[in-house]
Specification:
The complex is a heterodimer. Chain A is mainly beta. Chain A is 9% helix and 47% strand. In chain B, strands 6, 7, 8, 9, 10 and 11 form a six-stranded antiparallel beta sheet that branches. Classes of the chains: A mainly beta, B alpha+beta.
């Protein structure tokens, strides 16, 4: 799962880089985010990855979303992402997207799902639909923030979409390692979203073709 | 002195009365005891039946209540797990909470969406619902209460809890103005899907079940705080009952106050009141179920049973009285007979005693008279004989006169002998005669008696034989034994045939000597006279020409008896009369009788 995310992130990054900064040599930020200790979840709950505890939403086992805050030109084309419903679970559990992304919600299970969100940045209700629903139900996320996804039919299904104002973002692996590539030189703030209550950040200066090692803790 | 059965003698009547009284008393006591026992038994049985019925009804109601509660709680749990409600609470969308809940609770809340108590009656549909936040405070429904069911603000405030618990909390809320009645509320925790922690609570308010048992008349109500709601009970009676209930309203006393029961009069009828906590351990204020069980039916049954027992007892008593009367009569009959007999016996005894006394006095008089008479007679006879003998001795009388005088003298001798006999008899009769126990040689005595017999002038020509062992000694007094012998021989001679026989035989056996004197008889003693020959002055109708005064045999027998023996007639038929006299052998082996 994590490699796929990396791949997706890299794809988006590559797309952005190729679209805006053509001449400059893209820079790379690598590093490790120190993650909080994972919760010893009961066996039954092992599959749950988005946990809301005391009003705080966090992935479990812990991963972080590392993204670069700064001024970026608007996207040339509307980015598209997919949030699958597969094996009675959302896939991926955590999905960072740039503002304005169209997220599709295909149902790959042989049963109904009803994806909805009550989160302030995006409230929606896709209603019930099956795998053969055409076109694939989608939502455009144009307000930055954390959107919790639920299924009205399957109460245990949970996922979050983190709507960000940057094209540079990536989900760490469970060790906290990340790599952001294709970044135009400049001054940014590197942020690591750990939970709805906790975000780490650090200012970074990127030179042409730089390869920066940054650890966030 | 036969008396009729109806006229019992006084003592028997008294016995009968006493017996009757005792039996009746016993009967009364037994009946009373039985009455008490049976009555107590019936009362106990009734109480047990009531207990059973009460317990059964209560169990049924409890089962209904618990099933209902289980159903409601299950339903509330299901609702509390709904994703939209979780989303509204967890994703910071409280504004969407009630609208979402409305969708989810559509079938749980009474239709129409505005909860209508009348329409919700008896259904498992809620009157209202509210959410509590993590701290237990009520989250007010937005946009009016149409969505969540009408609830006065002061009641809504009572839904709040000090904190949301992991468990369902049951509560009963009632307003100060209890017009709305009591609502049964279940505060179901909404648990975090991931952590299981309570994040909020869903409170569903229901109309409490109307628990009424038609058959037994039991009605169940609810008391919470100062509010008591019992369906069908008017306000005055309700207030009265509320005052009777134990005051355990305080939260601290909620757990301590368990089930209680007492009897009370209410509304002019008797009721068994049962009260028990409805929500022990709940965070809501304690509420109690109050059951009223009418005792009227049981009391009526008991009264009826009591009357039946009294009736049965009276019947039994009457029967018992009759029976005891019979019994007394039956038992007193032998007593009456006994008393009658004893009465007769007493009378007879008294008479006999009087007769005996009279007889004894007469006898004594007679004996005295005989003795006196004999003594008075002896002297003149002696004087007479002496005079006659003197005349004869003078020789101055002619020969034929002398013969007459000699005959007269002989008569005086006979007279003397008779007087002697009488004198002796009178002494026997008076009991003055004592017989010595000397040795008497009977053989010798018989021999001398036979000599005398031979010496007597005898023109009959009798043949006398004697078969007597030589040494035959008896115990007695010689002169009296001689007198007996003399009397018997005299009789044998007197009543004999001319040329007849006399036979004397004696033998000894077993300490007794038997002597028989038999003779050929002129005429046998008639059988009808035989029992009387030993009576005094009895002379058988046989020899008017034969001299005697009917004293001899009587005297002989008396004397024989005084010697410890007897004299009896052995036989008396056409040709033979035989007497037997018995004596004791000497030395006497047996004491004087």
């Amino acid at each position: 799962m994590i490699p796929r995310l990396h791949f997706l992130g890299a794809m988006v990054a590559a797309f952005c880089v190729s679209g805006s900064v053509a001449a400059a040599e893209p820079a790379v930020i690598e590093g490790r985010v120190t993650l909080p200790a994972g919760r010893e979840a009961p066996v039954l709950n092992q599959r749950y990855e988005i946990v809301s505890k005391g009003g705080v939403v966090a992935p479990n086992p812990p991963v972080a979303v590392v993204f670069l805050a700064g001024d970026f030109p608007a996207a040339e084309a509307q980015p598209v992402a997919r949030m699958l419903q597969k094996d009675l679970a959302f896939e991926p559990r955590i999905l960072p997207v740039r503002v304005g992304t169209k997220v599709e919600f295909p149902n790959l299970d042989p049963t109904y799902h009803n994806v909805f969100s009550y989160s302030k940045p995006k409230r929606f209700d896709l209603g019930r639909y099956r795998a053969d629903e055409e076109p694939v139900p989608y939502q455009i996320f144009d307000t930055p923030g954390l959107v919790t996804l639920r299924c009205d039919i399957h109460e245990h299904m949970r996922a979050v979409i983190l709507v960000l104002e940057t094209p540079h973002f990536v989900v760490t692996d469970t060790d906290g390692r990340f790599q952001l590539t294709g970044i135009a030189p400049g001054a940014y703030t590197l942020k690591a979203w750990i939970s709805s209550a906790s975000t780490l950040e650090r200012a970074v200066e990127l030179a042409d073709g730089a390869r920066l090692e940054v650890n966030l803790e | 002195v036969k008396t009729g059965r109806t006229q019992a003698p006084p003592q028997a009547a008294r016995f009968r009365r006493r017996l009757l009284a005792a039996t009746m008393l016993l009967l009364c006591a037994l009946t009373a005891a039985a009455f008490l026992v049976v009555r107590r038994g019936i009362a106990r049985g009734e109480a047990q039946a009531l207990e059973r019925e009460f317990a059964a009804v209560l169990d049924r109601l409890q089962a209904v209540r618990q099933m209902r509660r289980a159903a409601l709680v299950e339903r509330a749990r299901a609702l509390a797990g709904k994703a939209r409600i979780h989303a509204a609470i967890e994703d910071g969308a409280l504004d969407l909470l009630y609208p979402s809940a409305l969708d989810e609770l559509r079938d749980a809340v009474a239709p129409p969406r505005i909860a209508d108590p009348a329409a919700a009656a008896g259904a498992l549909r809620a009157r209202f619902y509210r959410f509590l936040d993590r701290d237990g405070s009520v989250i007010p429904p937005p946009g009016g209460e149409a969505a969540a069911g009408a609830l006065p603000p002061e009641l809504e405030a009572r839904l709040a809890l000090p904190g949301v618990s992991q468990h369902v909390q049951t509560g009963y809320i009632a307003g100060a103005r209890s017009g709305a009645g009591v609502s049964e509320v279940f505060a179901t925790p909404i648990l975090s899907t991931e952590t299981g922690e309570p994040i909020a609570a869903l409170v569903l308010g229901f109309e409490p079940p109307r628990l009424v048992s038609e058959r037994s008349g039991l009605v169940a109500g609810i008391r919470v705080g100062d509010t008591l709601v019992i369906p069908g009970l008017d306000p005055a009676a309700t207030a009265q009952l509320l005052a009777l209930l134990p005051d355990d309203d305080a939260r601290s006393g909620g757990a301590a106050a368990g089930a209680r029961r007492f009897e009370t009069g209410l509304d002019g009828a008797s009721w068994l009141v049962f009260t028990q906590p409805l929500n022990p351990g709940s965070l809501y204020p304690p509420a109690h179920e109050v059951c009223l069980f009418p005792l009227a039916a049981m009391q009526a049954r008991q009264r009826r049973a009591g009357l039946q027992i009294v009736g049965a007892g009276a019947g039994l008593l009457a029967l018992g009285f009759l029976g005891s009367h019979r019994l007394a009569a039956r038992f007193s009959r032998p007593v009456a007979t006994l008393e009658l007999e004893s009465h007769e016996q007493r009378v007879q005894r008294r008479r006999a005693e009087a007769e005996l006394e009279a007889t004894s006095a007469e006898l004594e008089r007679a004996a005295r008279f005989s003795a006196d008479a004999s003594h008075q007679l002896k002297t003149p006879v002696t004087v007479l004989r002496a005079g006659l003998e003197e005349i004869l001795a003078r020789g101055a009388v002619p020969t034929h006169e002398a013969e007459e005088i000699a005959a007269l003298i002989h008569q005086t001798y006979r007279l003397s002998s008779v007087i002697e006999d009488l004198l002796l008899l009178s002494r026997v009769d008076a009991g003055h005669l004592r017989v010595a126990a000397d040795e008497v040689d009977l053989a010798l005595l018989i021999a001398s008696s036979l000599d005398d017999l031979d010496a007597s002038p005898d023109e009959l020509g009798l043949e006398v034989t004697a078969d007597v062992p030589p040494a035959l000694r008896i115990s007695g007094e010689r002169r009296y034994v001689a007198l007996i012998l003399q009397n018997l021989l005299e009789n044998a001679r007197k009543y004999n045939l001319p040329g007849g026989r006399i036979r004397i035989a004696a033998s000894e056996a077993a300490g007794r000597v038997h002597l028989t004197v038999g003779n050929t008889a002129l005429r046998p003693i008639p059988p009808e006279s035989q029992p009387h020959i030993f009576e005094r002055f009895h002379r058988a109708a046989m020899g008017e020409n034969i001299p005697g005064y009917g004293i001899g045999l009587n005297l002989a027998r008396e004397l024989a008896r005084l010697h410890g023996g007897d004299l009896r007639l052995l036989r008396s038929d056409a040709d033979w009369t035989e007497f037997e006299v018995s004596f004791r052998s000497y030395p006497a082996t047996r004491p004087h009788p």
